[in-house]
Design goal:
By secondary structure, the protein is mainly alpha-helical. The protein has one domain. It is built from twelve helices and no strands. The chain is elongated and about 60 Å long.
Length: 215
């Protein structure tokens, strides 16, 4: 597979929130089979190529940034180091652009990704705060007892981030417990087991309350 390059020439003036809005990025999200970054990635890259062919260079730059930031999966236990390394080539102008659009992103999956990148690259505490509920909203969208990893990865990242910045871990715990109550241990694979393991790792919630679900 040919490696894609996301290096682009600096724009003058740099990208703005209006450029993001005008690019109609939401069309990519709405037409995606699954609402996760890796699914968005290919479409964002295709849109960048189409914009280049049309000589719409500002739109091309928007979609190149979106393709770049959506090109990796979450690794919940190592996302801090993993994201910091894989997105180390984002320029100051690109990071400033992401900061400008972060609160305007209506898709929680994309918003969580942008906010998390800004946290690991710039230690932007406000962005870390934004990422926590966005990850939970994305987890709800992706929740499936059969294909549980997408959901659990986002819940786990949300919890680890909440514990890291000491912010709203009780909200994440409430979300986990709501999922456990909803499935009552009857999900066919590992969704409930993985979530209970997270609570036990951090000694959060009421593990005894859910012990019967593990039998």
């Amino acid at each position: 597979m040919q490696k894609r390059s996301y290096t682009m020439s600096p724009l003058n003036p740099p990208l703005t929130k209006d450029d993001f809005t005008n690019a109609c990025w939401q069309d990519v999200v709405n037409s995606s089979e699954r609402r996760d970054c890796l699914t968005y990635h290919t479409s964002f890259w295709k849109k960048a190529q189409e914009a280049q062919e049309a000589e719409n260079f500002r739109e091309q730059a928007v979609f190149e940034v979106l393709a770049a930031i959506s090109s990796a999966a979450i690794k919940p236990e190592s996302t801090e180091e993993f994201f910091a390394d894989i997105f180390k080539n984002l320029t100051d102008d690109q990071l400033n652009f992401l900061t400008e659009i972060a609160t305007e992103i209506s898709d929680p999956e994309l918003q969580a990704r942008v906010a998390d990148i800004l946290w690991v690259r710039q230690r932007n505490y406000r962005m870390a705060q934004l990422a926590i509920p966005a990850y939970l909203q994305s987890a709800t969208t992706l929740e499936s007892p059969d294909h549980w990893t997408h959901c659990v990865d986002r819940i786990e990242r949300s919890l680890r981030l909440a514990r890291r910045i000491k912010y709203q871990d009780e909200v994440v715990v409430a979300h986990i417990e709501a999922v456990l109550v909803r499935y009552k241990g009857e999900d066919p694979l590992w969704l409930s087991a993985k979530l209970m393991a997270l609570l036990q790792e951090y000694r959060l919630g009421e593990p005894a309350k859910y012990a019967c679900l593990q039998s």
